[in-house]
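Project outcomes to date are best conveyed with an example. Our students and postdoctoral researchers have been running inverse folding experiments weekly, and each run begins with a structure described purely in tokens. The record below, which covers 335 residues, was selected by the lab manager from last quarter's runs and is presented without edits.
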């Protein structure tokens, strides 16, 4: 997500982006202006950023500067975003999802597979947080303006529970529970094959996969080599081809469940990166997945579902569990 400028009110994601202020931090310090903007405005090409600078839409400390100007810590970059005739005037319109729970402090959604939780990369609208801003934001009426704040995130292809704070104090208290690993998360996964043990624990560190041609791909390492990662699983039911697992990650490493299930020989159905052939991931990026590829994947998305979330509701002073039912596409594989 775009960085929030210190002291500014949260941006209203129900409206198109018109201007942006960026505080130069340690990540941007020393970078050229054009490269710093490329880091933040991930959906724009470097040539389009040069056009913004050349047209006077970008200033640093209130003055126009060259694209080659090196950024100094603490400086402010101001970007005016010219109107885009093809931009979505209502970024949250048409985004639908079941509501699992709602009160005055929070809302929990059952996010469908394929919907992004928040804008990133070149995905600028149509996300869950855009839809929630459309529903709750009232910047012109401060007494009724509610700022939805994500408490956690799940991948685009993963379905299931996403909890969002509607109250700043609630968000801070529950976010601390997430940070302190006091929130219990349960996932459901449909995998190829059946694990040799009905219940088990995968305790293997996760490290970059240097053998892969995909830079972001991870793999398991040996004990003591890499950040520790622990995943518990239990077989709920299975067929000759697939198994439905209940999965409880005890750590929160990137791609942890996908990496660990692949490591025990039972990759997620539909997983293009950690399944039997990572070239399917490259085909997806290139838009060249064909019928043969899709038949091998079985599902168009990886079969992972955020099933339940258990935490202490600080305002109601009680433990709460929010559950999202197994979606039909996964249920059909393991009747």
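After processing, the design step wrote out the following sequence:
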């Amino acid at each position: 997500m775009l960085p929030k400028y210190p002291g500014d009110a949260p941006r209203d994601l129900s409206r198109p982006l018109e201007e942006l202020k960026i505080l130069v931090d340690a990540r941007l310090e020393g970078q050229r202006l054009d490269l710093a903007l490329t880091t933040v405005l991930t959906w724009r090409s470097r040539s389009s950023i040069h056009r913004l600078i050349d047209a006077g839409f970008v200033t640093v400390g209130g003055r126009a500067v060259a694209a080659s100007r090196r950024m100094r810590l603490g400086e402010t970059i101001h970007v005016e975003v010219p109107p885009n005739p093809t931009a979505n005037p209502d970024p949250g319109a048409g985004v639908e999802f079941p509501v699992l729970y709602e009160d005055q402090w929070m809302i929990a959604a059952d996010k469908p597979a394929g919907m992004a939780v928040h804008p990133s990369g070149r995905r600028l609208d149509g996300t869950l947080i855009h839809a929630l801003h459309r529903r709750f934001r009232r910047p012109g009426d401060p007494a009724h303006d509610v700022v939805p704040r994500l408490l956690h995130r799940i991948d685009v292809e993963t379905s299931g529970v996403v909890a969002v704070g509607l109250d700043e104090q609630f968000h801070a208290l529950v976010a601390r529970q997430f940070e302190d690993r006091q929130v219990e998360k349960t996932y459901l996964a449909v995998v190829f094959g059946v694990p040799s043990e009905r219940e088990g624990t995968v305790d293997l560190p996760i490290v970059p996969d240097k053998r892969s041609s995909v830079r972001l791909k991870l793999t398991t390492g040996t004990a003591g080599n890499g950040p520790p990662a622990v995943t518990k699983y239990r077989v709920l039911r299975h067929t000759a081809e697939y198994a439905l697992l209940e999965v409880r990650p005890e750590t929160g490493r990137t791609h942890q469940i996908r990496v660990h299930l692949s490591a025990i020989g039972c990759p997620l159905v539909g997983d293009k990166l950690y399944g039997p052939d990572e070239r399917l991931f490259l085909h997806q990026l290139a838009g060249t997945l064909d019928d043969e590829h899709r038949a091998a994947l079985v599902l168009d998305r990886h079969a992972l579902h955020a099933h339940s979330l258990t935490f202490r509701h600080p305002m109601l002073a009680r433990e709460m569990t929010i559950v999202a039912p197994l979606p039909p596409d996964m249920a059909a594989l393991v009747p």
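The helical segments are 33-40, 46-54, 128-136, 168-179, 256-263, 279-286, 291-297, 328-331. The two ends are 39 Å apart (CA to CA). The training component of this project remains on track.
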